[in-house]
Amino acid sequence: MAAAISVLANEGVRVEPTAIKKIIDSEGNVIEDNTYPTRATTASDMTEILQSVISSGTGTNAQIGRPAAGKTGTTDDHRDAWFVGYTPEMACAVWTGNDDFSRMNYAFGGNIPATVWGTFMKAALEGKAIANFHKPGNDLVAVLVCDESGMKANTACPKTHREMFRKGAEPRGLCPIHAAKVDKPRETERPAVEQPPQPEVHEEDLQAPGHV
Ligand SMILES: [Zn+2]
Q1: Are 30 and 120 members of one domain?
Q2: Domain check: are 6 and 34 in the same one?
Q3: What percent of the chain has pLDDT over 90?
Q4: Is 59 helix (H, G, I), strand (E, B) or coil?
């Protein structure tokens, strides 16, 4: 599980789990080296979606005060509960369950595993500088969607949620079920990632030539 989700943290490159990063002998020769190269892919899109699981979704118990992405999981009858997540530095999977496969009393991915994951990651990353996920592109948009119709929410939709779409694949039309009196979107689309700040325009630059 940790190996699988680390593919996203590592921008698309799978890394075999290992307990040994590097072995160097007394003369400085490298005997074994399990460090790995990286490359950029659109795995960052998935990272962005999974960051929203922790910031505002089912995994808020896994908030650790630094960029992190992850997913909760719970099997039927609460026999298994998972939280699998990562930061730019580290991937970690937490499973809870009973060894006789009996159901747990009150456990699902978002409570016990997410809390354990957060506690562990906070300790593991303590003192390390906060790193941001690398974003090679900005091709996702966040759209407020009607729960019922799956179309863009309008002011009359009773239940809505924010959903990420690849640009061009987002719903175009407004919800036809809950037609608003004023037919306008409840919230306009916005890029999922803030654009870099534009250069400042100074007032003097706007004055007509010869005005000085
Ligand atoms: Zn609606």
Answers
A1: yes
A2: yes
A3: 42
A4: coil
